[in-house]
Amino acid sequence: MLWDLASRKGAEKVLMLVAFTESIFFPVPQDLLLIPMGLAQRKKVFRLATICLIFSVLGGVTGYIIGLFFMELVGMAIIGFYGLMEQYEIIREWYDRYDAWAVAVAGVSPIPYKVCTLTAGAFRINLAVFIIASVLSRGARFYLIAALIYWQGDRAREFLEKRMDSFIVAAMILVIAGFVVLRFV
């Protein structure tokens, strides 16, 4: 099952790639890999959360740079792909009003972090503030998941094995809800 795939050689590299690209353009959150990988290797779950954090923030900085230097060429195509062109100016207002808090909310919520990274660069949010808010919010998200897996491992695994399809559907609904919130705010 998914647990067997999660413990295979190379799974960490896939986690790195997904965490990095999710921060720029990839629609599937790394949580969907972190959870089964953590449950398959409970002793390594905090290491896996650290991988998610490092590569998510590195991807976030890459997204920031794309937004800063290539927003018209690349960033707007990504924003357009997700149907968020109308929200572009709303996001600018959020940054003007809330600065680091807007980044922090995107880092832990279903609001797509990739939109945050691209627009933070485009709107020239202070890079240090962006990185600190990203590290704190993304870290909170991934380490909370890791802590739940570590302390509830077998119970969580049994629960998810019975309900994995429902869990994946729920996670995807949260991702879609994040896009909807951005679209209609």
Descriptive report:
By secondary structure, the chain is mostly helical. It has one domain (2-184). It is 82% helix and 0% strand. It is built from eight helices and no strands. It has helices at 2-6, 11-22, 31-40, 45-81, 88-98, 100-108, 113-122, 127-184. Helix 2 crosses helix 4 (45-81). The radius of gyration is 16 Å and the shape is elongated. The model has no long low-confidence stretch (mean pLDDT 82).
What multimeric state do the chains show? single chain
Radius of gyration: 16 Å
Overall SS class: mainly alpha
Give the number of helices. Answer: 8
What distance separates the N and C termini? Answer: 39 Å
Largest β-sheet summary: none
Mean pLDDT: 82
Please give the share of residues in helix: over 70%
Topology of helices and strands:
Blueprint (H helix, E strand, L loop, with lengths): L1 H5 L4 H12 L8 H10 L4 H37 L6 H11 L1 H9 L4 H10 L4 H58 L1
Helix pairs in contact: 2-4, 3-4, 3-8, 4-7, 4-8, 6-7, 6-8
